[in-house]
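Need Excinuclease ABC subunit C's 3D structure for a figure. Predict it.
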Amino acid sequence: MRVYYVYILLCSDKSFYTGMTNDLERRIIEHKSGKSKDSYTSSRLPLELKWYLECSDPRDAIQYEKKIKGWSRRKKQALIDENWDDLVKFSKNYTENFNSRM
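Structure prediction for Excinuclease ABC subunit C:
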């Protein structure tokens, strides 16, 4: 059975990068090498793997990757921290949460 991974990297500028691969170790090495000079992560080295999910179906992995890429930073952080209460809270109306911080 083939395994597909959705992953989140923490970049040196504190931004998150979300990706998908069928070989997590190889893909992390590629990111850390910085050889693709025009890639998002190449100018944000060093990188740290913060979270990953294994999927058996590539369509599921692609769906999760797209979903997570659309999340706010704090929602991604809640996922990384396994803070399920905040993950649910940040899944609710974004403007509601944004206005409550002000």
